[in-house]
Design a protein that fits this description.
This protein is α+β, with helices and mostly antiparallel strands and about 675 residues long. Helices cover about 20% and strands about 35% of the residues. The strands form 8 sheets. An 8-stranded mixed β-sheet has the order 29-30-32-31-33-34-35-36, with helices on both faces. Strands 5, 6, 7, 8 and 9 form a 5-stranded mixed β-sheet that branches. β29 and β30 form a beta hairpin. The longest helix has 19 residues. The radius of gyration is 25 Å and the shape is globular. The N and C termini lie far apart (about 50 Å).
Amino acid sequence: MTIRNSAATRWALSRRGLLAGVGGVGLATAAGPAAARRSDPHALADFYAKPATRGVALSPSGERIAIIRELLENGQRRTVLDLVDAADPARPAIRSPLGDVECEFMEWANDERVLVGVALKTRTGRDNRSASSFISSEGVEIISRRMLSIDPATGGAVALFGDDRQRMRRARDLGAVIDLLHDDPDHVLMASTTSLGVYALYKVNVRTGVATEVERGDNDTVHWETQAGVPVIRYDVNLGGTVVTVHGRAPGERGWRMLRRVRVDEAPDFAFVTGTDRPGVLIVSARQDGEDVESIRELDLRTFEFGPPMSSRPGSDVTGGLLDDRGRYLGAAFWKDRLEYDFVSPELSVHHRAMNRFFDNACNVELLDVDAARNRFVTYVSGPREPGAWYLYDRAARSYVNLAQRTALDSRRLGAAEAVQVETRDGAGITAYLTAPPGSAPGPLIVLSHGGPESRDRLDWARQAQVLAAQGWWVLQPNFRGSGGYGLAFAAEGWGRWGERMQEDIEDAVARVVSSRGLDRDRVAIMGASYGGYAALMGAVRRPDLYKAAIGIAGVYDLPDFMDHVARRDDSPGREAYEFWTRRIGEPGTDAARLAGASPRRRAGDVSCPVLLVHGVDDAIVPVFQSRRMRDALQAAGKTVDYREIPDAGHGGWEDEVEQEMMGRCIALLRRVFA
């Protein structure tokens, strides 16, 4: 498959061409970065500028495209919905104003109406902050969510659930869409709480906003999955929010039966993908007993039997399924270094390869929307030097056109990244990603360790890595043994090895890139969040000769204390949350000495470099006392430590202004130690 656009046209229609002011397809261009010299790195504030585009969606027929944009006029935010002709994206868009709202979700309900989820933020009361907080704010922020149904041709809108004031008083979230009901264009299924505080399903008219209750969940129900509009999967969560019980029910059955239990966030091994054309038979991703990788397979709800893998790759867990506009399964998504698909239809592989070639095989091309005819695709493109952009791929026209870009960052002023294969000291192999500063001059190195630990980094856009690279520093992101995504055996290589093998893999990756790139061995620092915060402080304990600074963000620093906390709050059946962490970290009774030795708080005297600790006060995953006690231990040992708490913040997902402030403090520390 060859895309007809010439090289000049590709540049004009690409995000880079738009930013440089070359050509034009009726889209907004960004001023500023193009005027800078290509080698000038971006300033910190550039990385945290408000996104210019919030979302792009293709209509079911493939004829129209909806784009949510945020404009800044006279210092005020103005959100608009643009309607674009997919056959001629260069034509001026039909614009509908939405006001000063933050849009979090957008999807076509049918060919005439677009669903837009908005967050309404208010602040109440007065709240004084301590000097150790990043931000001083007035009161507590309250967020309410509503779903609007908009006719983009006229701008007419209705609020789903209508003007139900009683419901709005008791439920702040009225924006959860469960099923678009493809066979009923006038309705969608949504979830909200009843007057008794129980979650329930409602059939909501997208033209009038009127809602009718369909089914109620239990006290702990949080979500459903459906097949042809019928609820077939229900999720109930324990009080601690750590374990989800998955229930199944075939169409025609009345009672729910438990299918399995899965961990929330940490290493889940089951996910709904879509239904099939056979009632009661679903397509899911799951890892069965004795299997190494998570695969796409069928699930029969009548027998609870899983079929053999439909799509599976050795050493790589499936990350999701690809669906068309009707919810029909098109293929499976996998991450190696970059995003890849296993398509049901081989012809789609040809087109995806053509899309990748358009970007010189340097970006990840995610298929977001596929029309019913499978002719037009809206794709989201990202990569180490591509912060994100939306493109329209038209098979019939054999064209690939830029629709919008997320930010005004210029790829020419960002650092290149590459995958590095590392041989560990015991002869194993891991992958790490190395981001160079713009210009690639040798210099200091920052280790940026991921959390989890059963998550992983990818060769993709990584804002914090680029922020650090813009300072002239190299950034290393190692996927040490114990990381997720590579199969259960690879993850299990880190079980019971906290503070040992996982740290050794990081150190081996540092040695590899320092040697091969000629970097400054005397200027190396380490930072990370969650498990990455643990790795940073444990690195400072193990290798005071190597790391000149350690930055821990929402980290675990005392393993026995953490296990005691998990045990006390675990209300899951069979204490599954506690058993999960016992397998990963160790048994506090029999492994007491090892866990103490692998706890940075209990070895604070071994730290010789300056430390920065950051934690959200409302963290429900890793309690804030972990950082407070780490600070106290460092201070008692006479070490240099800066401690900051973030009010009204959890384990992650912090506001951009908070992360920007945090990164500014990290940069200041690193500049001091590298001076």
